[in-house]
Amino acid sequence: MGQPDMEWIFRQIAEDNHTTVEEVRREMQAAIDEAQLVADSTAKCLWDSIPRNGEKISPEDFIVFMADFLDGGENL
């Protein structure tokens, strides 16, 4: 599976929710950051397995990981 068009994805989400791309990114980052605070060891292992382009998992990192996971995990 090729890389998804991130700008298109964020524009679609923003349009569907009557908001801005910036707000979508901000909300997604807040949700990712909060979800990683879960103490469950299985969840921690999953979060740790997500490849990232920086110290934190970005919305783009999460989308690429989940798209691949839902596509059968061929690139995981």
Helix % is 55-70%
Biggest sheet architecture: none
Radius of gyration: 13 Å
Proportion of beta-strand residues: under 5%
Q: Which regions contain 5 or more consecutive residues with pLDDT less than 50?
A: none
The rough form would be described as globular
Ends apart, CA distance between termini: 11 Å
How many strands?
0
The secondary-structure element order is HHHH
Structural class: mainly alpha
| Count of DSSP-assigned helices | 4
In round numbers, the mean pLDDT is 91
Descriptive overview:
The chain is mainly α. The protein is 61% helix and 0% strand. The protein is built from four helices and no strands. The chain has helices at residues 6-16, 21-35, 41-48, 59-70. The longest helix has 15 residues, at 21-35. The protein starts with 5 loop residues before the first helix and ends in a 6-residue tail after the last helix. 7% of the residues are buried. The model has no long low-confidence stretch (mean pLDDT 91).
Topology:
Layout: H1 6-16, H2 21-35, H3 41-48, H4 59-70
Quick structural overview:
This protein has 76 residues and is mostly helical. Helices cover 61% and strands 0% of the residues.
Question: Which key phrases capture this entry?
Answer:
single chain; 76 residues; mainly alpha
